[in-house]
Amino acid sequence: MDNGMSSKTHNANSILLARRTVLQLRTEASRERMKVSKASADLMNYCTEHAMADPLLVGFPTSDNPFKDKKPCTIL
Amino acid sequence: MCDQTFVAATFGPCENCSTPSPLINIYIKSEPINYCSLCVEMMACQGLQKGESLVSLKRESESLKKKLEEERKKLCDVELNQVAEKIEVLGALSIKTRRVLKGHGNKVLCMDWCKDKRRLVSSSQDGKLIVWDAFTLNKEHGVSLPCTWIMTCAYAPSGCAVACGGLDNKCSVIPLSMDRNENLAAKKKSVAMHTNYVSGCTFTNSDMQLLTSSGDGTCALWDVESGQLLQSFHGHTADVLSLDLAPSETGNTFVSGGCDMKANVWDMRSGQNIQSFESHESDINCVKYYPSGDAFASASDDATCRFYDLRADREVAVYQKDSIVFGASTVDFSLSGRLLFAGYNDYTINVWDVLKGTRASILFGHENRVSRVRVSPDGTALCSASWDNTLRWATDFVTENK
To answer: Structure pTM?
Structure first.
């Protein structure tokens, strides 16, 4: 009898979950979207605008490097 | 409201409320519904006259999902790497490890930079939290906590406190004091309480609010002072493994990823799930916003990292190689967003060209899984934490020709 009871409440919960999913999908479906070409162009622009200021991308001079090794370097 | 008299052919537990009563046997769109009279009345009042049932709801969700896919496909007029063909190929990167931080006695699970670009906090499996000074390699603070597996740690924006959480199902805030003799563990204050492990935490724009993600499938926003739950975010159907706050000051959104293979974008004020992305084939271990806030990347156990654009509402790039078969556990962008650093379970860090989709470099050195990679706030250094008990610093610099 316990199994029967839990499966009925499970049914009610499934309906609630399904209803919530449908409402969520309805809101998502009504959203405004942008074309990938425009979105990609914007991403590319951001990269190029900030590229010169990206120390991991372009590197920065050893004299400014706080992590520089203190010992003299040897050429291997 | 009085019950109508009806002839009841069956008596038993109602399919809606489970109370045993005479059941009205009705058919909605040829599906039998056995509800008690009260539930039939309630169903009618809730506007379910059109015959909403589990089957019809499932059918509607399937058709909505299909419609969403079609809409998203329509916008895919070109691939990101095609648009990126006109951009220059990256030069050779000379990112090298400059320092190895030793001090943890066990797997380092997480680390976070301080806004002063110099300090960082790391947490490990044996319950230790260490605050390091990057330049001097000094250990400024060491805290031993009673719980093991501190899976997440975060530095407060002011630099005066750190937050950490893990298997204790809590996220606690520890104020950092300059007095070395003070027992920091005693001043620990529990802020967040979840019903399962805490997998990720971050302060919002101030020291006053903490955002957490948990193995209980939810994310939550807490007030640090009172410990009050301000907002909770439900929608994931499995453990949430990671979260990241949107970079903009005015923005109030964050993204989370979890074991249900979904990445969800949330509105912090309303608690609503704004967008959802489901293209990974396994657990999403880490999510991180692109510096502009218009996109985010994810790392997954399916050995790929993916890039999602929020305005196009779809995945725009997949970073994968046949030779990469181990799961990716962590990602972070460089300052300009051109590079994506991803730590993998095969002990390496792959550096991806975000726009072209190709691998720009591999960083070797760790002797066990890379659990976390983070670029410093000014973009000059990359710190990686690993299960080999160490953290490593790497920078890229050019020697001046003088």
So the answer is: 0.82
